[in-house]
Amino acid sequence: MNAHIASKLLGLTAAIGLTASAPALHAQGAPVEANPLGLPEQPTMLANPDSNVRRATAVVNGYVITGTDLDQRVALLVNANEREISPKEMQRVRAQVLRNLIDETLQIQAAEAEEIVISDAEVNQTYARVAAQNGQLPEDMKTQLASIGSSEASLKRQIRGELAWQRLLRQKVAYFVNVSAEEVNEVMRRLNESKGTDEYWIWEIYLSANQENQAAVEANAKKIVEQLQQGGSFVAYARQFSEASTAAVGGDLGWIHLPQLKDAQLETVVSGMTAGQLVGPIKIPGGYWIVYLRDKRQVLMADPRDAMLSLKQIQITFDPSASQEANQAKLQTFIEGVKGMRGCGSADEIAASLDASVVNNDSIRARALPEQLQNVMLNLQVGEATPPFGGVEEGVRVLMLCGRDDPEAAGGPSFDEVMAQIEDERIAKAAQRYLRDLRNDAYIEYN
């Protein structure tokens, strides 16, 4: 039995603006066969095919999803994006949220059929934990949810659904997942053989497409990319729109090697990306792919960005009422003075003569610095300083490196961690099949 699944509330914190960690779940669909159903190329519609006229609520095996349920759950997604969503985009969001509510209802009903009961105490405990992750008390989060057009009841319903599905998967799926020691040892052997090679932490959104809907799907993918570039939440959009198995964890594909993408085009794209870069939509067999590179590292190698630095931050400020010439002269004096410093031992004395302030920063991890400064600092020797940076408004400063403790080489995942990841991947695939069967057997009426 997999013990991990009980501790993961997949996607819940993402719905209110938090991020959740999760195992890597590999996705992307197979190439779509051309017209596999043998349908006519230009079918004659006998009714209005416009999906926008579909009613907003549904009855799922007798359970009514109301318009209020839909509105309040949509409000959670809108709040996670922290920006306004256009009316056209909102139509797609509402349609997807309704599908999510239907799936959630099917999951709760399936758990109840197996006599799985989620108590109010469990729901309240998880609700309090989510509030704490947001830095709030439960009553404060209740007020916040109401202020954005959602409610405590809506979030607790989502919590109940997530907990019920997890417990059902433990009982009906995880119990039957077995991973042998040989499989784990083989993965660890391959991992050791790949020591020093690059691996990439990728987040993805995958949208399937065929010949008939390709143009519409591409347009939708471009809209999603546009929203993400304007500050939209990748986790929220992946959860609501992605058709990859990673949708449940906000698109987190985890750390992978490029050959795992199984597509030369995607390997080329990802290998040329920098951490924090968003690319897409990319046309691939079966649909479109949107990729965000969260980070990059070398397998089983120490990451220089984990080095602990001891720094002196030396800064001057400017009088905004002074003339440009006076401020420029002060800047030049500062630059020349910094050049004359001979290591950290002379920094305080020379800074005082320049009317500059000095702040000592010990035990600063290199990756905590802005990316541009990371590269500069990691190339400095002890006693050297960065070039001056800043401006008249915020002040000009330099960082002087006074000490550096490099990280030890990474030891790699343990046997148990590798086994848990393989189990999680298999459970995720089995869960997809289980939910697909629930959809196929459901009686759903749109109101």
TrEMBL record:
Leader sequence residues: 1-27
Domain of life: Bacteria
Keywords: Chaperone, Isomerase, Periplasm, Rotamase, Signal
Any one GO MF annotation of this record: peptidyl-prolyl cis-trans isomerase activity
Pfam families in alphabetical order: Rotamase, SurA_N
Stretches assigned to the PpiC domain: 197-295
PANTHER family membership: CHAPERONE SURA (PTHR47637:SF1)
Designated name of the protein: Parvulin-like PPIase
Organism of provenance: Qipengyuania polymorpha
